[in-house]
Write a structure and sequence with these properties.
The complex is a heterodimer. By secondary structure, chain A is an alpha+beta fold. In chain A, about 35% of the residues lie in helices and about 15% in strands. Chain A has a two-stranded antiparallel ribbon with strand order 1-4. Chain B is globular, with a radius of gyration of 17 Å. The chains are: A alpha+beta, B mainly alpha. The interface between A and B is medium-sized, with 16 and 21 residues.
Chain lengths: ~350, ~200
């Protein structure tokens, strides 16, 4: 008995040793040179092999990133964090690209206090089920039902239910996977770029009177936004305002004008242009292109932005050839200015 | 001797085809048979592994396991060890020789490890008490039979792409039906050669 145990151990051990040694030699002899960055990128990716990026698994994406076929932020699951790590491995600046990612937005503000109900629903508490009964319990047939199907389907826990019975999306956590967009039976969630800060949060195409009758915060198609927009970016189509995100420059004039507060900006403070004095050569280009004449200054002298007039459209930033203008959120302005000074000193 | 070897090869390719008569290795048979090119590549890789395994199984059985009376309980373990190492080796060779083929195989290449044809052939060798040459013939035959089944299946599946398959049978359903019909066709070879 003891003998057979011993021979088993010895024979299997020897066999394993021989095969393992053989493999080790073969590994050295047959080694294929791979880009060391590929290994590093594979290490940085989540490793779930979910295929959401469109490549066969994380190793496939890593290969594409190293070959330059995919951007560093191609992993929709990893989000900004992973993109930053990969950007470091690849030696490119990831900040620029990660700013333009897709984020889910809830395009309805008709919460329990704002929207009227036409019926009481006592069935299965999912939006899908409720939407099948007489188009949902809310009087507006476009309204968010609020049972949180989107919360359940979100793989990264970016959606929570707000107090008013509307989903709130955590923009930092949202990976733009689009599962909630597909899940929502009322189609009130849409994916838009993180660059777009202004959204019309209503999809109701009823006439103004009917919208007003069912919801206090719905779009009444008054066209105020259309008139105030300096960039021709917002239009009332089918009784609801629609923003052309290609043209919109987040100036938020429409947000201010909207009488029903249907249009919202993602951030409470808008950006303002700030001229870095050390870089400005006084070429007057910015002043010429400013749509609201917020920039003043004489030729060859440092220009000044009138912060009260500036709407944060960032046209001047694009026009400036000396990179002398920065867009800064009001709350952050002081910090950046002092930093700029410190750098120049 | 030559006649016996011929019988073993023909027997394992047609009469006792490992896929269509013994119903081993169904996973790659259905998984890698959508394109003829990949199917034949997969068949070749499996054939190589099978032949090598047959040799290894023969030596391990006759020089390690049998002399010490270990074959009753260590046979499967040791064969798994050998097969896994061989597959690793094949993987490295293919990655070196043809990365395209390596990518085409994807997950199925490491899965040769768990392909039961390989294990089946390895276990049949001590069962039939084959000598070295016969073992190689069995491994080669099993591999060729697997390649044949895969090639036939992939040819049919490629052809099927252009045909109007009933909605309910699209996808795996029609493939299973095809596999069943192929298997029945191979029943026709029964009695061509004496068993064993």
């Amino acid at each position: 008995m003891a003998n057979s145990i011993l021979t088993s151990i010895l024979s299997m051990g020897g066999l394993g040793l021989a095969l393992g040694g053989g493999l080790a030699i073969a590994f050295k002899k047959l080694a294929v040179e791979t880009d060391p960055r590929e290994e590093a990128v594979i290490g940085a990716l989540p490793g779930a092999n979910c295929g959401a990026c469109g490549y066969p698994g994380c190793s496939g994406l890593a290969k594409a990133i190293v070959e330059g076929k995919a951007p560093v932020n191609a992993c929709p699951v990893g989000g900004a964090k992973v993109a930053a790590v990969i950007a470091e491995i690849m030696g490119v600046s990831g900040v620029e690209s990660s700013e333009n990612r897709l984020i889910a937005r809830v395009l309805c503000q008709g919460g329990t206090s704002k929207a009227k109900y036409k019926s009481e629903y006592h069935g299965v508490t999912t939006c899908k089920a409720a939407s099948m009964v007489n188009d949902g319990p809310k009087a507006c047939s476009y309204a968010c039902i609020g049972f949180g199907d989107c919360v359940k389907v979100c793989p990264v826990d970016a959606i929570t239910m707000g107090e008013d019975g509307l989903p709130i999306i955590d923009e930092d956590k949202c990976t733009g996977c689009g599962l909630c967009v597909k899940e929502c039976p009322k189609m009130v969630i849409a994916l838009t770029s993180s660059k777009n800060e202004v959204h019309v949060r209503c999809r109701a195409t009823m006439k103004a009177k009917d919208t007003r009758a069912v919801c206090s915060i719905g779009c009444i198609a008054c066209k105020m936004c259309e008139k105030v927009c300096p960039f021709d970016a917002i239009h009332v189509i089918n009784n609801v305002a629609v923003i052309d995100h290609e043209k919109c420059r987040n100036c938020m004039l429409c947000v201010e004008k909207c009488p029903t507060k249907t249009i919202t900006s993602a951030f409470p403070t808008r950006k303002k242009a700030v001229i870095v004095e050390e870089k400005c050569i006084g070429c007057t280009l910015c002043a010429k292109h400013c749509p609201v004449n917020a920039i003043t200054g004489e030729v060859k002298k440092v220009h000044v932005v009138n912060q009260d007039l500036c709407i944060g459209c960032s046209i001047c930033v694009e026009k400036c050839r000396k990179d002398a203008i920065e867009m800064v959120r009001e709350t952050l302005q002081k910090n950046v200015l002092s930093k700029a000074h410190a750098a120049s000193n | 001797m030559a006649k016996e070897l011929f019988f073993i090869i023909i027997g394992s390719v047609f009469v006792n085809n490992f896929v269509l008569s013994r119903f081993l290795g169904q996973c790659p048979f259905l998984g890698v048979s959508s394109k003829t090119e990949t199917a034949i590549g997969m068949g070749m890789a499996t054939t190589f592994v099978l032949t090598m395994t047959a040799v290894a199984a023969y030596f391990i059985q006759n020089y390690v396991l049998a002399p010490y009376g270990l074959d009753a309980f260590l046979q499967i373990v040791s064969f798994i060890l050998v097969i896994a190492s061989l597959v690793q080796l094949v993987e490295m060779v293919i990655l070196k020789v043809s990365p395209t083929l390596y990518n085409a195989f994807g997950i199925f290449l490491p899965l040769i490890t768990t392909n039961c044809i390989v294990m089946g052939a390895a276990l049949l060798i001590p069962m039939y008490n084959y000598n070295l040459i016969k073992s190689i013939a069995l491994g080669l035959g099993a591999g060729l039979g697997f390649t044949l089944a895969l090639a036939l299946m992939s040819g049919i599946r490629e052809e099927m792409e252009f045909h109007d398959v009933p909605e309910a049978l699209k996808g795996p359903a029609i493939v299973f039906i095809t596999a069943g019909l192929l298997s029945m066709i191979f029943l026709g070879f029964t009695g061509l050669v004496p068993l064993g």
